[in-house]
Amino acid sequence: MEISVQMYSVRESLATDVQATVQRLVELGLTHAEPYHLLEYRDELVRAREQFPIDFPSAHQSFLGEVDFPAVLEAAQAVGVQYLVDPFWNPEDWTDAEKVRALADTLNQRAAEAAEAGIRVGYHNHHFELASQLGGRTALEVFAEALDPQVVLEVDTYWAAVGGAEVPALLGRLGERVQLVHLKDGDLSTDPAAQLPLGTGAMPLAETLQAASGAAYGVIEFDDYAGDMFEGIAASVAHLRSVL
């Protein structure tokens, strides 16, 4: 598993100066990062790849709704993205099995289009996809069952735990479809400000990493953090390196 970081964590710095933000991530020893709003940041990310020893193997961009998908794929190719991940879908739809399967059909269609560009697509969960039970299974697992083999999942392990999942067992059931995991820690509440550097909260990190050993990238993320964000990322990088 390679270590990456979700750039949403440093969104305030990113909004001020993309290149300086990327430089700070590189100075923390990171060689991979996961951008968001790919269309918005396309040109700056291309510049960053040219200027710094970093790449962007995965990226977040909404594409399951109405969007110019060819433009999204062009941006992904330009930035060097291998895994294009939709980060969010309407929570209410995850309570309806028919809507969950329809969403899977849409993602499968996108996967076929993306395959022509050499890109794999996937979905990133929050807590509600796990909190919703459909026929005795989580909505996320109902969704996964309807996906084509080339579609990946990026399991946000923290939000999955907040949603009530036993994360190592969930990862085991989802198997090789999980090519990316979001790694964060905290008190397992829905309050993003309660998130903490890896190894300092309530997440069963060792068991989670073992269950996710087949994933290509472990992506550090803070939705929010009470301390200095770059220091929090540095602490998470150091801890993750010590246990991988």
Structure description:
- It comes from Brachybacterium vulturis.
- InterPro entries: IolE/XylAMocC-like, Xyl_isomerase-like_sf, Xyl_isomerase-like_TIM-brl.
- Keywords: Carbohydrate metabolism, Isomerase.
- This is Xylose isomerase.
- GO terms for molecular function: isomerase activity.
- The protein has a seven-stranded parallel sheet with strand order 1-11-8-7-4-3-2. A two-stranded antiparallel sheet has the order 5-6. Strands 9-10 form a two-stranded antiparallel sheet.
- The chain has one domain (2-243): Divalent-metal-dependent TIM barrel enzymes (TIM Barrel).
- 44% of the residues lie in helices and 16% in strands.
- Helix 2 crosses helix 3 and helix 5 crosses helix 7 (139-145).
- It has 244 residues and is an alpha/beta fold.
- A hairpin with a 2-residue loop joins strand 5 and strand 6 (137-138).
